[in-house]
Each structure stands twice: as structure tokens, then as C-alpha cells.
Design brief:
heterotrimer, A mainly alpha (about 300), B alpha+beta (about 375), C mainly alpha (about 300), B: about 375 residues, alpha+beta, Rossmann fold, OB fold (Dihydrolipoamide Acetyltransferase, E2P), six-stranded mixed beta sheet, 9 helices, C: about 300 residues, mainly alpha, MetI-like fold, 15 helices, 2 strands, about 80% helix, flat
């Protein structure tokens, strides 16, 4: 029997299995046909534009002459550019930090209350995320309005002087970050809440028996168990926040005196409104490094999750 | 109604062989069980019969047709999966009729067939439910119903009972047997549970490491295993194996265990074993053939004394364990005769059921 | 002896339970306090928008309590809904969103099925590629896309820019990668035996998709649909960059660019328009909250 098996193994594979193979090959063809629209869409409208953008960045304003890195040289010599770099980083990092922090605590509070009330609270707290950003930003703009600001009216009741929410560079920076945090924190909350729910209750019971207090349970159980989801959410949010357009555009349009511009709004100003497409492309390309780094880490996290699951 | 034949079937996954050349003839209406430990290739073999896996080499015949090239749906087979694979969004009726509806059977015939199958399985009042609303046993029935409705040439079962609890498993085992007797369709059934194999099969195919070790009726496998693997796999608790040497004294042969005990080989076996005199062998005897002395001893039953290491009362019988030359040996005795741990006990070995195994080839002599 | 033990236990237990209950009650109390604070923070802008939208322009410019309506009126809503321009924005938004949802599902569901079930050469790489595409922000793409469509106009003679339907071409770049990604996750969670059973039952790949996968993964399909809808309803950058004429605008841009006229703000109308624009996503969210949240969390937790 062993000999027979050995002989059989030596039979060259798949000489006669034509039609099942045909079936398999047809399967590949169908599969390819099913993914073709996706591939076309991604290649034509995402990959190609992304590379085209790099090419555009090497042209002069009228797009007739190749200037190499001329646009970048020009940018590096402008103070506004460095201001935008700085502001983009300040904007993204501080906004993500506060979104993550607020999201974490709110998720905790929701998780603490009885299950039957959680739906209601969660539903209410998600509202900022559901309203289109452009729309809610108009609402904030009205709240910040220099002459009719409802916030200043309240402050006035306590005897505080009116705050120039969007008029003064520092306050304007604070305001755009505040709106971004307001809009993004619910997303963190919902992600954390899902993660909190996936931590087995027994772990907390075991820790309670081991004598861990509230903070120790948070530090030694909750945070390590949620590490992966926190990392992925933060990286996602970093990309989105870094590339943010709507809030800054509507709230301050980059002002006062360009002090609140981020890459996206400045690129829009230069490229579309200023009609210097190559320069706009060059500015927007500066979003790539942070994007690449975050993507690598996210992909690693996603892969690890896939393996664990 | 059809016979199934596998000819030198081989399956390689990348470079690792899962099935290393199998020959198997299954008669019409026969209930065949493929049994073996996990990774022995039994499920792969079944999936090749179903057409869910391509064969690397060899031929598969169903009802006189070579089906290597035939996609699953045209092989006229039905399969019951381990996790039932019921379509969660369809009612029981829709689940059972899905195949027929795809083949555009007339509505009246679909209805008639489903109802007939439902009667066989006693699930007539479940037809409007969805899988979520059913218990494990009911889902199992529906999965079988889906197979019966199609009236296929061959039924394929892939470990269908392993998701059920012990009690339900026994009940469903009987159920499957009954269904087979009613519909009399050729059946190939895969399991890792040798009790299921023994109780269900007309013939059992024991597989090990991608090969067939033995094909036979349950009786044959139990009484005349061909290899050490089959001897050890069939029967519970498993057969005892003790290293020994075969000695000749005058006309008779005896098996000498290293601790000095010598068991006399029954006379009708002397000629069979004579070529192996002087060679090391494995002495095999099932626990049920090591008992306390019961009435008059047969000449081929032999008494020996041991000190007990472990005593496990099971109710109707008691398992006693003792060590013979480093090998743990189990006997099954009447509870009233059992002694305490550490005590000496006199036991009887029924040598009419002994086996000798070549330790090198692991074949039964 | 036993009586004494029982008594001791009896004395101990309530005291202990009392302290656990006390700390739980405290945790609960503070949770509610903070939840109320955050709820105020999160809900202030929309509520203030609602308040403003119910005021006449006279009341808005009067120096009264801005947080309260003294003479509630629906005139802002009536004016908007009888005004042709706003209805055009609304219609454009609806047509664009509905079409984009349909295109997105037609592209991403079959692709996700093929990527998760029909392994073919390069399918794993492609799945990762889809995910990476999702990470590329639109703010990086709008400039080259603008140039590409300007170029296409020169070649084909068709004017793409400043037509609302260009958004139907552009929005799928935002919705398709993510929807494909979450559908891959949902399809991957369907047991392999289900397709094998369907294969044996005689289903082809298309039937397997339409009769088994789509119905079984319906929650995922709903979540993906919601995502595609909200993304195409809410996007601001593409319409701002690609459309300019008043009759080609969609809601968010229409409200920002046409209702805000220079320094003359008609805040009551702006707020009413904004709320009308926010209403569809909010209504979808209110009725399908669980699907909405499932889709959101599936993106990063699944796969």
C-alpha cells in the first residue's frame, strides 16, 4: 500500500483535470470581473491623481515649464509656509489629544451607567459626529459671531469681557481646535465604548479580588486591553485631522492674517482660488509624510488584529 | 443509487501531502464511515468526493461516472456539514428547497419532496421557522432534510454530530441510522469518534496519516485489526500493549513479558506465530479481556497477579490499572471483585483475544 | 456554634454590601454629572442653531437673550422652502447622494465578495491596497483631480467642472474604499461551509452572492449604505472646488456660499437651512443607530 501511494504521488498533477480546472479558471475570471470597477476607480481617481499631483508640483504656474523643485524652494523661503507647517502640527496633535482624552472619559462614564440607559446617552453624545461638519461649523461660527456671540453674552452675565473668538490669532487657533475636538470626540467615544464592552467582566472581578482599586484596574486592565484600538483610532484621527479642511475654511478661512491656515486650506487658497495649481499641489504633498507614517502603523495594527482573530 | 470508487487518490496542499494515495470501493446503498484522528485526511477525502477540493492525482467515480472534472453541483451528492451550514436568512422550508428551487423544479414537486423529507425526520411543524429558532438537534435534522430532499446518489456527512452534547449525539446517531435504512442511499460519513464509526457503519475505513490502514466491518476491525494503529484506535479504553518476546517450548509457544510472566499462545495460533520465535514483539490485549476469574477457566485463559495502581469505579464495572514493565495496563473487572489501590489482585488474561504486533512494521502478526 | 457563625455573617454581610453599594452609587453619581456636562457641550451648537432658526431677523439683531426665543416663528423655514434656490440645492444633494450610494454598493459589494471569497492572484494585496486608498484624504486629491478634469474637457469637449453631476464621479473615491473594506470584514465572518453548501445545492457565484451573501450580510450592507450616504451628503471640499454656479451647488456649499452674502448675514435663514441639511443624516441615524455605529466601529475593529 505504501508503494502504491508513493507511485500515485508521482503521477504528474492535473493532466486530465481539465474541466474542473476550467471551472477554477473561470472562477478567477469572474472574480477579476467583479473587482474590475473597483480597480478602475482606485487607479483612475486615486492612485493616478496622487502621482499626477507629484508631477504637477514640479511645474511653473502656467504649467508649461518644468521647474523641478522650484516650487518647494519658493515655499521654503516663505514665512507663511513655516507658519502653516507649525499650525498644522499644533492643530492636529492638540485636537487629536483632546479628542482621545475626552472620548476616553465619556466612554467610561457611559460604560459605568446601567445598560438600559446607555443607548439613550450614546445616541445623544454622537450627534456632533452625525451632523455634516460644514453645517455644524456654521453653527459654531454663529456662536462665535463678533457682535452677537452667544458665548460672549453669557460671559458678559458673569462680568467677563467679550472674547475675540475668531478675531485674535491665539483665540482663533483655540476656536478651530475646539470645534474639531467637539466634532471628533464622539467618534473616539464610540470606538472606546466598543472596546470597553469587549473586555471580559471576569478580568475586573479577578482584579477586584486581587485588591486592585479603581485606578489600578484602569491602568493594568482597561488600558492594556484597549491599547490596539486606541492606537488605531488615534492614527486614523491624526490623518483625518491633519488633512482637515471644512472647519478651518468655514470658521476662519485661514485668517486672521493666515494664522490658522492648515495644509488643506492653504493649498485650496493657492491652487484653486489663486489659480496656481502647481504650488497648491506642492503644499498638499506635505500631508504625505504624516500620512505614510500613520498608514504603516495602522496597517501593522490591522494585520496584528487579523492574526489574533 | 450509486456506488463510489476512489482510485489512487492523492491530495497535496502546496507541498504537504494530505491524502497519500487511497483506493476505496463503496457499494450501492452502503454506509461507509471514514474514521481517524484529526489530520489523517478523512475530511479532505470526503471533500474531494464532494468536489469541494480538487484531486492532485487519481480518479473519483460516482455511479459509474468519472467525476474528477465535474463541479460539485453536477455530482449529484448532498452534504451535511459539521456546523450544519443552514442559510440563516431562510426558513426551514426554504433551506431544504433551495437546491431544488435553483434547479427550477415545479413548485408542487418541491412541496411534496420537502414534506416527505420532513415526515421522515419528524420536523413537519418546524418548516416555517428560521435556523436561529431551532435547537442543535433540530438544526441537525434540517441539515439532513436538505440532503434528503435532493434525493442524491450519495450522502456525505462531515462530522455531523460533533457540535452536539453527548446525550443528543447518541440520539442523533440512531436517527441517522434510521434515516439511512429508510432512504437507502449510499453514504460516506466522516468522524473522529470510533464509537460513532462502529455503531453506524456497514464498513469502517480507518485512516492514518493520509493512508487507509484498514477497511472492514466493525466486527473485523475489533477482532482482527491489521495494524497497531487500528488495534489501538478501535475500542475504548484502548488496547494494552506490552513489549515481550516470543519463545518456543516444545510444541507450544509462549509470550514472555520482561517481568517473567509467560502467557501460553493458544494452539490454533502456534503455526501463525512460529516464524517469529525469538523476536521481540508487542503483546496486545484489550482491557475487556483482562478480568477477575469467572467460573471455570478455559485452557486459553491464564491467571496472573498484579499490584493495583489506580482503581476507577464506573458503576457497572471497575477499571483497574497496573504497570507491567513500564507500560500501564488496564483491566475491566466486576465491581465486587475489585481491590483497593496498592493491594494485590488476581486477574485472568483471555488469550483467545491476544494480538502480537511487529514493533518495527507495527503490523499485526 | 452554628447560630453564632450565622449571626456574625449576618452582621458582616450587610455592612460590606453597603460599602460596595456606596462606592457604586458614587461612581454612578459622578458619571451622570459628567455625562450631563458633556451632553451640554456636545448639544449646545445644534440647539443654539435651532433656537436661532426660530427667530425673526428683528429678534436676532435685538439685544435680548440669544439663548431664548421670545416670539417663535417658522418664517425662516417657510421662506427657504418656498425659495427655488434652496430646493435646487436640496434636489442636487438628494440626486447626488442616492446615485453615489447606488454606484458605491454596485462596485464595493461584488468586489468585497470576490476579495473575501474567490481567492485569485493578487487578491490579498488588492484588499490591503483598498484599505490604504481609504487613508488618502480628499484634500490631497482635489487639486490633481481638478486639473485632470480640466484636461479631459480640452480632450473631449465635455465641460466637467461646474456641473453638479461631477460629484457623482468624485464621491465614490471617498465611499467605495471604506465600504469595500467593511464588506470584506462582514463577508469574512460568514462561515465557509455556507458557500460550500450553496455550491453543492447548485448555486453559481452570482447566485451565491445575491441569494446567500447579500441577505446574510444585510446588516453590513445597511451600515455601508449609511456610510456612503452620509459621506456624499456631507462632503464640502469637492463641491466647493468643482462647482460654483448657484444652480449647480449641493446643500452644505449652497448654504455657506449663497446664504452668506458678503457681510449681510441672514442668520435665521442660514440656521434653518443648516438644520434642514443636517436633518437627513440625523433621521437616518435616529432610526438606524445600531447599524450606523456598527459600520463605524467595524472599519477599525474588523479585519
Amino acid at each position: 500500500m505504501a508503494e502504491l501511494a508513493a507511485e500515485a504521488v508521482r503521477v504528474p498533477a492535473g493532466v486530465r483535470h481539465t474541466s474542473l480546472q476550467k471551472f477554477m479558471r473561470r472562477r478567477s475570471t469572474i472574480a477579476f470581473a467583479m473587482t474590475l470597477p473597483l480597480i478602475v476607480l482606485i487607479v483612475a481617481l486615486v492612485i493616478y491623481p496622487a502621482f499626477y499631483s507629484m508631477y504637477l508640483a514640479t511645474l511653473n504656474k502656467s504649467m508649461q515649464r518644468f521647474v523641478g523643485l522650484g516650487n518647494f524652494e519658493f515655499l521654503f523661503r516663505r514665512a507663511t509656509f513655516w507658519m502653516v507647517v507649525k499650525q498644522s502640527c499644533i492643530f492636529a496633535i492638540s485636537a487629536v489629544f483632546f479628542k482621545a482624552l475626552i472620548g476616553f472619559f465619556v466612554a467610561h462614564f457611559v460604560h459605568t451607567i446601567p445598560t438600559k440607559g446607555q443607548r439613550k446617552w450614546r445616541g445623544m453624545l454622537m450627534v456632533p459626529w452625525v451632523i455634516p461638519t460644514a453645517i455644524s461649523t456654521i453653527g459654531w461660527f454663529w456662536l462665535f459671531d463678533p457682535s452677537y456671540s452667544a458665548f460672549n453674552w453669557l460671559l458678559g452675565k458673569f462680568g467677563v469681557d467679550p472674547v475675540p473668538w475668531l478675531g485674535h490669532p491665539l483665540w482663533a487657533r483655540f476656536s478651530v481646535i475646539l470645534v474639531n475636538v467637539w466634532y471628533g470626540a464622539p467618534f473616539f467615544m464610540i470606538m472606546y465604548l466598543a472596546a470597553l464592552k469587549s473586555v471580559p467582566e471576569q478580568l475586573y472581578e479577578a482584579a477586584a479580588i486581587d485588591g486592585a482599586n479603581w485606578f489600578q484596574r484602569l491602568w493594568y486592565i482597561t488600558l492594556p486591553m484597549m491599547r490596539n484600538i486606541i492606537a488605531i483610532t488615534v492614527l486614523f484621527s491624526l490623518i483625518v485631522t491633519f488633512a482637515n479642511f471644512d472647519i478651518v475654511r468655514i470658521l476662519t478661512a485661514g485668517g486672521p492674517v493666515d494664522q490658522t491656515h492648515v495644509f488643506a486650506t492653504w493649498a485650496f487658497l493657492l491652487g484653486i482660488q489663486g489659480n496656481d495649481i502647481p504650488l497648491g499641489a506642492a503644499v498638499s504633498l506635505f500631508m504625505l509624510p504624516i500620512l505614510g507614517v500613520s498608514a504603516i502603523f495602522i496597517l501593522r495594527g490591522v494585520r496584528r488584529r487579523t492574526i489574533e482573530a | 443509487m450509486a456506488e463510489v470508487a476512489l482510485r489512487r487518490v492523492v491530495k497535496m496542499f502546496e507541498k504537504t501531502p494530505a491524502v497519500r494515495g487511497i483506493d476505496l470501493e463503496i457499494a450501492d446503498k452502503e454506509f461507509i464511515v471514514l474514521v481517524g484522528p484529526s489530520g489523517c485526511g478523512k475530511s479532505t477525502t470526503l471533500r474531494m468526493i464532494a468536489g469541494l477540493e480538487e484531486t492532485t492525482a487519481g480518479e473519483i467515480w460516482i455511479g459509474g461516472d468519472l467525476v474528477n472534472d465535474v463541479p460539485p453541483k453536477d455530482r449529484d451528492i448532498a452534504m451535511v456539514f459539521q456546523n450544519y451550514a443552514l442559510y440563516p436568512h431562510m426558513t426551514v422550508f426554504e433551506n431544504m428547497s433551495f437546491g431544488l428551487r435553483l434547479k427550477r423544479f415545479p413548485k408542487s414537486e418541491i412541496k411534496a419532496r420537502v414534506e416527505a423529507a420532513a415526515r421522515i425526520l419528524d420536523i413537519t411543524d418546524l418548516l416555517d421557522r428560521r435556523p436561529k429558532q431551532l435547537s442543535g438537534g433540530q438544526r441537525q435534522r434540517v441539515a439532513m432534510g436538505r440532503a434528503i430532499v435532493r434525493n442524491p446518489k450519495v450522502f456525505l456527512f462531515d462530522e455531523p454530530l460533533s457540535n452536539l452534547d453527548a446525550k443528543l449525539r447518541v440520539q442523533m446517531r440512531t436517527e441517522i441510522k434510521k434515516v439511512h435504512q429508510k432512504v437507502m442511499t449510499t453514504t460516506v460519513y466522516v468522524t473522529h469518534d470510533q464509537v460513532e464509526a462502529m455503531t453506524l457503519a456497514d464498513r469502517v475505513v480507518v485512516m492514518n496519516q493520509g493512508r487507509i490502514d484498514q477497511i472492514g466491518t466493525p466486527h473485523e476491525l475489533y477482532h482482527a485489526p491489521k495494524t497497531k494503529f487500528v488495534a489501538g484506535f478501535i475500542g475504548s479504553p484502548a488496547m494494552n500493549f506490552v513489549p515481550a518476546t516470543l519463545e518456543a517450548n516444545a510444541a507450544a509457544l509462549s509470550v514472555r513479558l520482561p517481568n517473567g510472566i509467560a502467557f501460553r499462545v493458544p494452539e490454533d495460533r502456534t503455526e501463525r506465530y512460529r516464524p517469529f520465535v525469538g523476536r521481540p514483539v508487542l503483546f496486545g490485549l484489550r482491557p475487556e479481556h483482562i478480568t477477575e476469574p469467572r467460573g471455570m477457566l478455559h485452557p486459553d485463559q491464564q491467571v496472573f497477579d498484579v499490584a493495583l495502581d489506580v482503581v476507577e469505579p464506573m458503576g457497572m464495572e471497575t477499571m483497574v490499572y497496573f504497570v507491567m514493565d513500564g507500560a500501564e495496563v488496564c483491566g475491566r473487572v466486576d465491581p465486587s471483585s475489585a481491590r483497593e489501590v496498592g493491594e494485590k489482585m488476581r486477574l485472568v488474561a483471555d488469550l483467545r483475544h491476544m494480538h502480537l504486533i511487529d514493533p518495527e512494521t507495527e503490523e499485526v502478526l | 456554634m452554628t447560630a453564632v457563625t450565622a449571626g456574625e455573617l449576618g452582621g458582616l454581610k450587610p455592612a460590606r454590601r453597603g460599602s460596595i453599594q456606596k462606592s457604586r452609587r458614587q461612581a454612578l453619581f459622578w458619571s451622570y454629572v459628567f455625562l450631563v456636562i458633556f451632553a451640554i457641550f456636545f448639544l449646545t451648537p445644534p440647539i443654539y442653531m435651532l433656537v436661532t432658526s426660530l427667530k425673526s431677523s428683528g429678534e436676532i439683531s435685538a439685544v435680548t437673550n440669544p439663548w431664548w426665543v421670545y416670539q417663535p416663528t417658522l418664517e425662516n423655514y417657510v421662506e427657504l422652502l418656498t425659495q427655488n434656490q434652496f430646493l435646487v440645492f436640496f434636489r442636487n444633494s438628494v440626486v447626488v447622494s442616492v446615485t453615489v450610494v447606488a454606484i458605491t454598493m454596485l462596485i464595493s459589494v461584488p468586489a468585497a465578495f470576490a476579495l473575501s471569497r474567490m481567492k485569485f492572484w493578487g487578491s490579498a494585496t488588492l484588499a490591503t491596497g483598498v484599505f490604504l486608498t481609504y487613508l488618502i484624504p480628499e484634500t490631497l486629491l482635489f487639486i490633481p483631480l481638478f486639473k485632470i478634469f480640466a484636461f479631459l474637457r480640452d480632450v473631449t469637449g465635455i465641460e466637467f467642472i461646474n456641473h453638479w453631476w461631477i460629484l457623482i464621479i468624485l464621491y465614490p473615491t471617498l465611499s467605495v474604499p471604506f465600504c469595500t473594506w467593511i464588506m470584506i470584514g462582514y463577508f469574512a465572518s460568514i462561515p465557509k461551509e455556507l458557500d460550500e453548501a450553496a455550491l453543492i445545492d447548485g448555486a453559481g457565484y452570482i447566485q451565491m452572492l445575491t441569494k446567500i451573501f447579500i441577505p446574510v450580510a444585510l446588516p453590513g450592507i445597511i451600515a455601508a449604505t449609511i456610510f456612503a450616504f452620509t459621506v456624499s451628503w456631507a462632503n464640502f471640499l469637492y463641491p466647493l472646488a468643482f462647482t460654483t454656479s448657484a444652480d449647480q451647488l449641493v446643500l452644505p456649499v449652497g448654504i455657506v456660499t449663497t446664504l452668506i452674502k458678503g457681510d449681510v448675514y441672514n442668520w435665521g435663514q442660514i440656521m434653518a437651512g443648516s438644520l434642514l441639511c443636517a436633518a437627513p443624516p440625523l433621521i437616518v441615524y435616529a432610526f438606524l443607530m445600531d447599524y450606523y455605529i456598527a459600520g463605524l466601529t467595524a472599519g477599525a475593529t474588523k479585519g
